[in-house]
Amino acid sequence: MPSRRPERRNEESAKAIVRAALDLCREVGYDKLGIEGIAARAGVGKNTIYRWWPSKSAILLDGLLSAMTSAQSDFPDTGDVVADFKTQIVAACETLTRPDTAPHYAALIGAAQQDAELANAMWERLLSHLVAAAVDRIRHAQRQGQIRSDLDPDLIVELLYGPIYYGWLIRHSPPGREHIHTTVDTVFAGVAASSAEARSGNG
Amino acid sequence: MPSRRPERRNEESAKAIVRAALDLCREVGYDKLGIEGIAARAGVGKNTIYRWWPSKSAILLDGLLSAMTSAQSDFPDTGDVVADFKTQIVAACETLTRPDTAPHYAALIGAAQQDAELANAMWERLLSHLVAAAVDRIRHAQRQGQIRSDLDPDLIVELLYGPIYYGWLIRHSPPGREHIHTTVDTVFAGVAASSAEARSGNG
């Protein structure tokens, strides 16, 4: 369990509660998910849940974190930055397509639009270290002369991951492997007929 | 009112209902917004609302559409595709920053993650014609040799708008003018040190 809560707790009960929350969320939807239902499904009292988690979204976030694999959070460094981002993004995107993670992650992103505390928790526990690892990989490629050194690495993270999230959340089309590869290639290659031309002329 | 409902209705009441929904949503948040509260605020009966709209999200979507200006939906064509996308995206992004539209749009995107009917309505009424206009502008630039003709225009739409939505929905940072300009420049110029190099070698 990747939970960082300091309280000692019965790990078997904690796992049962997270499992119950994930299963119930899939069955009834995030809106109708309640602590009472989770407690009943997990065979524990509501107070047990409230002792360890402040809200249903916190339980689901634990579930999402425990479902992520190291391939989804680690950045390969083979020396070929384009290939490395293809590998990482394809692995990370499993979270957006797997039935045991995709609906929960979409629900949490949706709920975070109305809940600043949840938005902060998702950033702190789920996203900030992934973004930091991507930025590190980009900086390394900049030092090696593979990526223009005048660009902010954080902007490049937005360019690489933004189209994937946009396709998923706004267009409701889960990212496929080939589409990810084309996206990464196009970000790295540029869409202008000649990037030198675009930089000096049309830009 | 851009509503496309066929029923004849009292436009003054309809406007009051939409206004009440927008105001209340801002005051109490999307989750706590209810048809009863909207009816009370607008001084109409609940049945009047249900005759014209199936849900609170449908009312908010009408409000969002009526708040959008033609600068946000029209695509300029000055001959300079990079400048035109900067102009359009800066105008469109007002929806993501104005206090009378940003929270409602974020709430609707959030709710659409759990509501396929709402997701379809947002696509049909709000997004599909904006995307079609962007695709037309890109095709025109491709015919003029300003954009590589081997790229799918829809992919370029994702590359241009995806980073903006990702920054807004996932990183919770509303897009500023300068950041939009850099994003558009970078998409058009490419992030690799040399795009020809990236295409033949590193990609």
Description:
The structure is a homodimer of 203-residue chains. The first copy, chain A, is an all-alpha fold. Chain A has 2 domains: 11-66, Homeodomain-like (Arc Repressor Mutant, subunit A, Orthogonal Bundle), CATH 1.10.10.60; 69-202, Tetracycline Repressor, domain 2 (Orthogonal Bundle). Chain A contains 11 helices and no strands.
Q: Cα-atom Rg of chain A, whole angstroms?
A: 20 Å
- Tally of helical runs of chain A: 11
Contiguous uncertain segments of 5+ residues of chain A: 191-203
Please estimate the helix content of chain A: 55-70%
Q: What is the end-to-end distance of chain A? A: 49 Å
Give the C-level CATH assignment of the largest domain in chain A: Mainly Alpha
Structural class of the secondary structure composition of chain A? mainly alpha
Give a quick summary of the entry.
2 copies of one chain form a homodimer. With 203 residues, chain A is mainly alpha-helical. The first copy, chain A, is built from 11 helices and no strands.
From the structure above, extract its key features:
homodimer; 203 residues; 2 domains; Arc Repressor Mutant, subunit A; Tetracycline Repressor, domain 2
SSE topology sketch:
The structure is a homodimer.
Chain A: H1 11-28, H2 35-42, H3 46-52, H4 56-67, H5 70-73, H6 81-92, H7 102-112, H8 116-143, H9 153-169, H10 177-189, H11 195-202
Helix pairs in contact in A: 1-2, 1-4, 2-3, 4-7, 4-8, 6-10, 7-8, 8-9, 9-10
